C-alpha cells in the first residue's frame, strides 16, 4: 500500500477501512472523509441497521482518531434512513446520526466544526407517505483539536445578485437594543474573491451511472478537502466505493488512500484514480 502511495500518490486497497487506517502511521492523516453504509439502507454491500450503527462505526472512529494528525479533521457524509413501518407504527426517522454526532464529541473528544446539510436538488422519490420527501443528507464535520484552522477563502462562493445589490444600497446600523454585530453605521464591500461559504451545500446527486448504488458527487469531498488540507496532505476514505473522494483529492494535488471491502469497487476506483493521477510523482511521509 505505502509503496503504491509513494509511486502514484494514491492507493486503492481492498480491506476493512478501520483495519486499513490502523495500518497507517499514527498522526499521518490530515483528513478522513467518507460516506459509510447509511443506517437502515439496504444495499448490495449489506445493511447496517440503526440499532447496531454505533457498534459498526466505533472501530472506524477509533482508527480515524489514532490516524489523524493533531490538526486533522473527519467528515462523515451520512443520512439516516427510516425505520420500517408496521401495521401499528409509522415509518419513524432514525436519530442514530444525531447520536453518533453527540458521541463523536462526548466519547471520542472531537470538536464539532459543524453539521452541514447537503440539499439534494433531484432526490430519488421514495414513495413514502409518513413525512415529506427526503431531500437532504448530513455532513458531520469534526476537528481533532479543540482549536482548528480552516481555509474559508479556498471555498468562497459567488455572491448572490440580490446580496450585492443590498450591499451597494444599504447602510447597516447598530440595533438600538445593543444586540448586534454592527457597532457603527457601515456599508459592506463585497470580498474580491467571493462571499463566505454557507454551511448548506446544494446540488444534484451524482450523474455517474455505474454498478455502485451510492456514488456521491465530486463537489462534496472537494469542499472539505479544499477547506482542511494543503497540497501533498494525506486524505483517507475508509469507505471508498468508486473512489470519488480520491478523484477530488488527486485533482487538488493531495495524496489519497481509500479502502473498501468489495473488490469490484476497488478495481473501479483503481482504474479511475490511475487515469486521474497519471504521471504524478508525490513523495511519501506516512
Ligand atoms: C455509501 S458507499 C460510499 C460511496 C463512495 N463515497 C462513492 O462515491 O463511490 C459505502 C461503501 O462502504 C463500503 N463498505 C462497507 N463496509 C465496509 C468496511 N467494513 N470497510 C470499508 N468499506 C466498507 C461499501 O462497499 C460501499 O462501497
TrEMBL record:
Keyword Ribonucleoprotein listed: no
Taxonomy, superkingdom: Bacteria
A GO cellular-component term linked to this record: cytoplasm
Keyword Methyltransferase carried by entry: yes
Gene Ontology BP terms: DNA restriction-modification system; methylation
EC number: 2.1.1.-
Span of domain DNA methylase N-4/N-6: 29-270
Pfam families named among the record's database cross-references: N6_N4_Mtase (PF01555)
Top enzyme category: transferase
GO molecular function: DNA binding; N-methyltransferase activity; site-specific DNA-methyltransferase (adenine-specific) activity
Alphabetized UniProt keyword annotations: Methyltransferase, Restriction system, Transferase
Gene3D superfamilies: Vaccinia Virus protein VP39 (3.40.50.150)
Family, as annotated: Belongs to the N(4)/N(6)-methyltransferase family.
Protein name: Methyltransferase
Species assigned in the record: Formimonas warabiya
